[in-house]
Write a structure and sequence with these properties.
binds ligand 9WO; alpha/beta
Length: 254
């Protein structure tokens, strides 16, 4: 997987990406990261990358010249990669988007700073504007890091088992995860559910599936519409009353 990032803070990106699963993927060459700092293309002696907004108002805007040069440099190094701008105005990022970029093999991310980037960069160079959700950061770098993490762990061989990231039991079925427990079997008077100690693997799989279905119905009924559900799943959901919940979007906490 090849990822290019246009950022004024390449050291911030590099430092965060040397740890854990992503760090190992980089060491093994499964993730190739290319950072381009617009400041390296600034023309003046102060290496200016921002300017005051036309029309007035507070703050500064990333000026188009250095940023476009950084993005063009990444486009040359990663031909065919979609150019993605991370901002709260974008379409909401999800697992399907992570999978599609992993399958393309490369992506270029623009991490903005200040009050944003000149709109003409979005018009001329950006293929997709993407958001992680309805909140504002100080810049796009932390959003870019989250996206790099989510895409990298989908690259075959990055997680232990080459298929584990894509199996239904590892988050590809569109449901929220089931609860997890480890030792001790009793913690501050709270015991692990007995079924998990039973050794009955079919009963354990059924319990986990039902917990995932119930949690999804309670917290994110919108996800059930796109989820990969079996006939048995639908029988269970009907038994706990999915229809009313999914239609109204209301919670049915007992
Ligand atoms: C800053 C600001 C300051 C005063 C008044 C309004 C303001 N808006 C912004 C702003 O939105 N700055 C952005 C910072 C410019 C683009 C990069 N930044 C960013 C990206 N913040 N949050 C994101 C982001 C990206 C993806 N998903 C969620 C948030």
């Amino acid at each position: 997987m090849k990822v290019g990032v246009a950022t004024l803070f390449p050291e911030l990106m590099d430092g965060a990406l040397e740890h854990g699963v992503v760090g190992r993927a980089k060491t093994k060459g499964q993730l190739e990261l290319t950072l381009a700092n617009p400041r390296d293309w600034a023309a003046d002696k102060h290496r200016t990358v921002d300017d005051r907004p036309f029309g007035g108002g507070p703050g500064m805007v990333m000026t188009p010249g250095p940023l476009s040069a950084a993005v063009e440099s990444l486009k040359t190094q990663l031909p065919g990669a979609p150019v993605v701008y991370l901002s709260p105005q974008g379409a909401v990022f999800d697992q399907a988007k992570a999978q599609s970029w992993q399958q393309l093999g490369s992506v270029i991310l623009i991490a903005g700073r200040y009050e944003g980037i000149d709109e003409r960069i979005i018009d001329q160079l950006v293929d997709e504007e993407v958001s992680l959700g309805d909140f504002v950061l100080s810049g796009g770098e932390f959003a870019a890091l989250a996206i790099i993490d989510s895409v990298t762990r989908l690259v075959p061989g990055v997680l232990g088992d080459p298929n584990s990231a894509l199996e239904d039991s590892f988050g590809d079925d569109g449901l929220l995860d089931c609860p997890h427990y480890t030792r001790p079997d009793s913690y501050q008077g709270h015991d692990v559910p007995a079924v998990l100690m039973s050794g009955d693997h079919k009963a354990i799989a059924r319990w986990r599936r039902q917990q995932a279905l119930q949690k999804t119905r309670d917290r994110r009924p919108d996800l059930l519409e796109k989820a990969k559900l079996t006939a048995e799943d639908n029988v269970f959901l009907t038994s706990i009353g999915v229809c009313e919940t999914a239609k109204s979007g209301a919670s049915t906490k007992e």
